[in-house]
Amino acid sequence: MTDISTSGQPAGHSDNDEPEPGHNSNRAIIAALAANTFIALLKFAGWGLTGVSSMLAEAIHSVADTGNQFLLLVGGRRAQKAATEEHPFGYGRERYVFAFMVAIVMFSIGGVFALYEAWHKLQEVLAGEHHDMGRWWWVPVVILIGAICAEGASLRTALRESDKARGRQRLFKYIRSAKAPELPVVVLEDSAAVIGLVFALFGVVLTKITGHGIFDVIGTALIGFLLVAVAITLATETKSLLLGEAASPDSIRTISDALMATEGVDRIIHMKTLHLGPEEIMVAAKIAVSPTESAAEVAATIDRAEVAIRSAEPMVTSLYLEPDIYSTSYQPASRPERPSAPSH
């Protein structure tokens, strides 16, 4: 028996069709971008008036976050490019690449700079230098309280938009399992921003009350460690998406049910799925078809299966089905061993 392989598309559909990225994530990104741009300017003003290290760390944090939101928007835009001969499956993974860049920016510009600033300030404290916040000490307090309110509003927007995407999933599980990186990134960034502002407020207030700069050092260091931890979390999750993740269990179940409900399909021998982008799934499956001598009947079964899968799961943009006759004695061909390297 000779197997017949097919990657045919139903009429009116092409592998080049690419879904538009969700507007929910863009709304959250733009809200965070506007908030962080304004807050960064205020923080720099507060640092300039008082010289408080935690204010400078938070100002750089806001600059990094502003750049990150810009990267997410650029990544979403580039992911919409049409497929080419060099990239036949499109550019959906651009969103993962730019999300990984966000983690790098947060780690280097945000976290490492804050830790460096804390170390530099610690040397001054140990040397016995006294820093007087002056008569403008209240300015950082007002800025930080206002920034907490603004970042809290941005976080609320991000959480509201993520609620629409995660359904009944717990937030942490949603961040771990989401295939679209934008909303999880914004939620983590905004959460880190609110916590970091609380750390900065802690440093400023206690430094003013006690007159000792060690609390400014502690606040700045906590901001640095927080950003490094969030950056590592983002990098770990995005790396998994870049390597290639299978479709969600719900999507796999939907695709399998659609296949098994197709007339002429006896069973699924094996199937693999891969996310080419947040809203793009590739499916490769070997299916058992009813024994027949008619190639046209086999082709018709494949066409029906393709229509059923695409109707059940619209994210399937690349679909490859291989028909076969099922046998209980079937064994997949083993991969030949690679020749060992010559010894010297």
TrEMBL record:
Transmembrane segments: 28-49, 96-116, 136-159, 180-202, 214-235
This protein's record includes keyword Transport: yes
Main location: membrane
MF terms in GO: monoatomic cation transmembrane transporter activity
Record membrane topology: Multi-pass membrane protein
Region (Disordered): 1-24
Gene3D superfamilies with a match to the protein in the record: Cation efflux protein transmembrane domain (1.20.1510.10)
GO CC terms, sorted: membrane
Originating species: Microlunatus endophyticus
Record has Transport as a keyword: yes
InterPro entries named among the record's database cross-references: Cation_efflux, Cation_efflux_CTD_sf, Cation_efflux_TM, Cation_efflux_TMD_sf, SLC30A9
Any one Pfam family match given in the protein's UniProt record, by short name: Cation_efflux
Organism classification: Bacteria, Bacillati, Actinomycetota, Actinomycetes, Propionibacteriales
Cation efflux protein transmembrane domain boundaries: 29-243
Protein name in the entry: Transporter
GO annotation, biological process: zinc ion transport
Assigned keywords, A-Z: Membrane, Transmembrane, Transmembrane helix, Transport
Subcellular compartments: Membrane
Superkingdom to which the source organism belongs: Bacteria
